[in-house]
Design goal:
By secondary structure, this protein is α+β, with helices and mostly antiparallel strands. It has a single domain, classed as Double-stranded beta-helix (4-Layer Sandwich). Helices cover 18% and strands 29% of the residues. The protein contains 5 helices and 18 strands. It has a 7-stranded mixed sheet, with helices on one face. A 4-stranded antiparallel sheet has the order 7-17-9-15.
Amino acid sequence: MTVATATTFDIVPLSKHIGAEIRGIDLHDTPDADTIKRLRQAWLDHSVLLFRGQKLEQEDLLRVTEYFGAVGPLGRPPKFFPRGYSRLLPNIMMISNIRENGETIGALPDGEMNFHHDMIHHDLPHNGTLLYSLEIPSHGGDTLFASGYAAYETLDPVIKAKLEGRRARHFYNYGSTIRNQGGIGATAQATHPVFRTHEETGRKAVYVNRLMTQEIEGLPQAESDALLEALFDHSERPEFVYRHVWKVGDLLLWDNRCSTHARDDFPSDQRRLMLRTTVQGTVRPY
């Protein structure tokens, strides 16, 4: 590994509202402080960064995570750790459908997953998430990213006025991938503003999601349900979304403060293996 190299890289937008590919950088090498600063600014500008063709060891993944903040804890109870986690360094999560002796070796193994913010069901949600691909199926398993900024800025003014200053409650059953289906036990629940102001960019984003948001506080249930459904549908409009088709060696970094992500279905008989780290939250979004 080369230490502290100055790097020139290109930033190529992936869609109108969200995402950029970083070209010309090998994350196995350690960039200098100015390069890290420029990468962090690109993350704040585009919410999602893609690095193609990376060859990373677990130590590299943890080091890269630290360019964007302190490495966050896994955020899942130890009793749910599959056997495969014994092969990983601390604070790295395995996302995989691979089974050994009939037991999955990773988390969130199969199927579609609704749009969500990672760890929104905690008082101090994670700022960011990194996902690195080691094995991918022949098709499916794409990850979709939706811009919370674009959703807020184009929201119906009547709905925006109705919800400005309100809070929503978020709840998650560990392992659930579809709203109110499945899961093997609640890890936590928390309340946060319906519209979150990003502490570094100053921009507002819709901060509710289909998978985990249960209700808007202070409203009758029927009204809350109707408003949330309108927010979910609006936030997931195709023009706000970047769909990522994975290749082996892809590293994705996304900002959980201003974006949601989802996964589409993929063949259950084909292997999918990803390594995940998180950037620890620094500000409670109150």
